[in-house]
Design a protein that fits this description.
Helix content is 47%, strand content 16%. It has helices spanning 2-20, 24-34, 37-42, 52-59, 67-78, 100-103, 115-121, 124-129, 135-138, 144-149, 153-158, 161-185, 204-212, 225-228, 265-278, 300-315, 325-335, and strands spanning 50-51, 83-87, 94-98, 194-198, 218-223, 237-241, 253-257, 284-292, 323-324, 339-343, 349-355. Strands 4, 5, 6, 7, 8, 9, 10 and 11 form an eight-stranded mixed sheet that branches. A three-stranded antiparallel sheet has the order 1-3-2. α13 (204-212) links the parallel β4 (194-198) and β5 (218-223). The radius of gyration is 23 Å and the shape is globular. It comes from Ipomoea pes-caprae (Railroad vine).
Length: 356
Amino acid sequence: MGSESESAQNSARLTIMELANMISVPMSLNAVVRLNVADAIWQGGSNAPLSASEILSSVLPSGGGDALNLQRILRMLTSYGVFREHINADASERRYSLGEVGKTLVTDKEGLSYGAYVLQHHQDALMKAWPLVHEAVVDSSSEPFVKANGEAAYSYYGKKPEMNGLMQKAMSGVSVPFMKAFLDGYHGFQGVTRLVDVGGSAGDCLRMILEKHPSITQGINFDLPEVVQKAPNIPGITHVGGDMFKSIPNGDAIFMKWMLTTWMDEECRAIMNSCYGALPQGGKLIACEPVLPNETDDTQRTRLLLEGDIFVMTIYRAKGKHRTEEEYRQLGRSVGFRSFRAFYVDFFFAVLEFQK
């Protein structure tokens, strides 16, 4: 019994030390994204193992750099499946190819990857908020981001074009894989001819939906005026600017993705009430959001959802949050939606269908 207890205590000590040092992981990810290491190794699909020196000669063609320090970063990230390590027979050299996780950082033909998502999460203004997470407990009237930067994240982004651009690129990198899963797995657009995308940014998601469902002849991309002003012309889509808290253009169905999570319950009710007023009887609000399980477990998906919940609390709204199915059902019921269904067609997002 004593040895078992000692083993458990030692494991606990290792775990708490690992958690305390966890910042090494995202910061090292930032480093390899900034250095464009994934593309240097991938080289159009060869994924041939390279030494740290060979990687440096590719990412820093003018010379310089510390190969040993790069190797230290690569080795640590190998333990998380970002890279695969290849050691020669006499152990004199380590070479690295991309693991499955690392492949998500490779730039695709559309110029997207999960690299922008990594960088977006760890910009200076966001990093300043993290030491203040306890303040969300002490005083939840404003989120740590406001306390660190003096204003809310969305207005702060609006004044920083480079931050706003990175956020949009990050969302695009995450959205494309989801939209493919969504379009393959969700079949709720029957009878819809006019579809409104709330918070649709440049209209990319709406364009993909219309391509998959040609029966939808009118697409309305609805976002802030300053956002849709920069949106490109897309056949079949009209860009409309406005305020979702006040009113939303009419449609047979309303689509939104990752919109409700960053708002408090009363703000979600205001958004959903605008949607309710824009729909005919029988019309649907189709919301794609991360949804928490009722019970906490240690699966990777649950951890990701709970980590994302703390991110929302820290950066966007101290009382914004990831919600359970039941919490979404109650929000929908509170504004008048008569039925609610959830579909799990993706590894992260759930599709929430509210019917009027």
